Amino acid sequence: MIKKFSGFLSGCLSLLLVLSTLIVQSHAEAQQQAIVFTNVNVVPFDRERILAGQTVIVRDGRIAEIGPAEKTEVPAGALQIDGRGKYLMPGLADMHVHLYPGAGAPDDLASQQLQLFLANGVTTIRNMIGKPEHLLLRDRVAKGELLGPTIYTAGPPLLGNNVPTPEAAERIVAEEKKAGYDLLKVHEGLSPEAYAAIVATANRVGIPFAGHVTATVGLKRALDAHQTSIEHLDGYLQALVADDSPVKPTGSQVVLGPVLEHIDESKIPALAAATRKAGVWNDPTLTLFKLVVSDATPEDLLKWPEMQYVPAKMRDAFAKQKQSTLGDPAPAAERQRYISLRNKMLVALHTAGAKLLIGPDSPQFFLVPGFGTHRELESFVEAGLSPYAAIEAATRNPAEYFAEFMKTPRDFGTVEAGMRADLILLDANPLQSVANLSKRVGLMVRGRWLPESELRKMLENVARLNASNTQGSMGKADFSGTWSLDKANSEGLPPGMDQLMTVVVTGDKLSLETKLITEQGEQVVADSYTLNGQEVEFSPKTPDGKIGKGKRTAKLAADGNSIDVVEQVTFDSPEGAVTIQTTRKWTLSPDRKTLKIDMTIDGPNGKQTLKRTFIKK
Ligand SMILES: [Zn+2]
């Protein structure tokens, strides 16, 4: 008994010893080497100014000290980063993000997205539609298990269909709070009663709410309820319609048509002041709506360099979204007026002291995580704000937003002692131009220094993960299906031949099973192509069972509607090696019901051309 007890005790002791070693180790890790930026121009974003010749000391993930270089001692053994001629500013926050699915397994979509943000200097994000896995992602980043921007996440969206009644609102709001989400996303279709119940419950349980202003709720109710942030400038243009207008706005977020003639711009300052008074913040998603109404074609937009960093499926979705706006566009003057009114409203909000946030709503409508953040900053400047005001909406403002609504001390968004060490080191002054935000030397995220070379590697990694289907684009065709030979429209068929093909395309892999029926009988041949344009070796088999040596490249055309396969096969024969060169071009008809395969076979017997047509079954 005693023995057993002492055994148990020593077991406990050794466990304790192990634990305490772990604690010491992790403490030692936290007490990491100090990192010091020397002689740097600090752009603190507490107000519009630059502090030249500073020493900035980072320790344990926080800014420990800032002071003039001549008065601030660099700790012994610190890693020094030469800041001469460079600018140190806070990392960016992107306040309207949609996280991909995933909990951050290596190279899963969510982890790719985190890399895209970091590679663009984004060190904080607000996820505007959350799932349980995003809570996990948030916590893993916070614990340092995963490198990424600090995450705040909304819960699943509150929509008219899932929150039909005040009772449902009470239940769902309480559930989302209990699940640990940071805020609620109010979305489309809510009734005024359901919205009121969301507001009351959110205030009672203590969770902020932000999001759309659906037409049924209207801007006045959202301001009265102190919705923490309004996305997309929802409700503003509708509120500017003259009181005596004979035309009423529709429920659409995009305000076009005759109602535009009845916008009363003299209402703008009062509306901006009311927003300021209500303490409601705005994330206008300017770029998104400019893209929605622009004349740019999907093909134009797919040429943006950042398209290489998203999956082909997403590019297709972007293209479809844009295509759907091009059918019957409103007159150009109307669309310009719509955009200019949004820009005027934004400037008026800023002038009135209402707070603004940068959050482009990526990934949607050609807005790629991180890259979209920069496009939105450009849009703020284009609308008439200074670079300082624009960048403030992506640094200090978001930090104040969370401090105010989460009731926590503000701990990022400015370069000051005590702040989380989320910093961007630039080669150029960001207050001169927001384009200078891309002239990075490196990024610090939670005290971890990532030189630009490392950020480039992240981008290359994400590009590589999506490269297998970079050829996929607008209207990418899918060759999958069962195809039967259309003999009447084929040339060079041996007598009595028939053919049935089953094609399955997954990612860049095309698998193919061909049933050949000839006078000699039936034969099934399986094959597969990797459609990435790279040469692969394979071992072809002749009908009489000989194994040869083959090289092949298969490539999906940029429009996604055709495939080129080039093959060279060598067989041994009694007369010596025989080489046959084959090309095949697969072309899908626009209605995708007909597949043509044109072949050339160049071998010892000369060159032959064959044409096959298949009909989808
Ligand atoms: Zn959104």
Kindly list the characteristics that best describe this protein.
alpha/beta; Lipocalin; 10-stranded antiparallel β-sheet; 8-stranded mixed β-sheet; disordered N terminus
Beta-sheet strand percentage? 25-35%
Strand order of the largest sheet: 19-18-17-16-25-24-23-22-21-20
Kindly report the name of the CATH homologous superfamily of one domain: Calycin beta-barrel core domain
User: How far from one another are the termini?
Assistant: 78 Å
Tell the overall outline: globular
List cofactors, ions and other ligands. zinc ion
Provide structural commentary.
By secondary structure, the chain is of the alpha/beta class. The protein has a domain of 136 residues: Lipocalin. It is built from 16 helices and 25 strands. The strands form four sheets. The protein has a ten-stranded antiparallel sheet, with no helix packed on it. Helix 8 crosses helix 12 and helix 9 packs antiparallel against helix 12. It is globular. The termini are far apart. The N terminus is likely disordered.
Helix and strand arrangement:
Elements: H1 2-30, E1 35-42, E2 51-59, E3 62-68, E4 79-82, E5 87-90, E6 92-97, H2 109-118, E7 122-127, H3 132-143, E8 150-153, H4 166-179, E9 184-186, H5 192-205, E10 209-211, H6 218-224, E11 229-231, H7 236-239, H8 268-278, E12 281-283, H9 286-293, H10 298-301, H11 312-326, H12 332-352, H13 371-383, H14 387-392, H15 396-406, E13 423-426, E14 440-445, E15 448-451, H16 452-467, E16 481-485, E17 498-506, E18 509-518, E19 521-530, E20 536-538, E21 549-556, E22 562-573, E23 576-588, E24 594-603, E25 606-616
Parallel strand pairs: 1-4, 1-5, 6-7, 7-8, 9-10, 10-11, 11-12
Antiparallel strand pairs: 1-2, 2-3, 5-13, 13-14, 14-15, 16-17, 16-25, 17-18, 18-19, 20-21, 21-22, 22-23, 23-24, 24-25
Helix pairs in contact: 2-16, 4-5, 8-12, 9-12
The protein binds zinc ion (ZN).
Zinc ion binds at residues 96, 98, 128, 361.
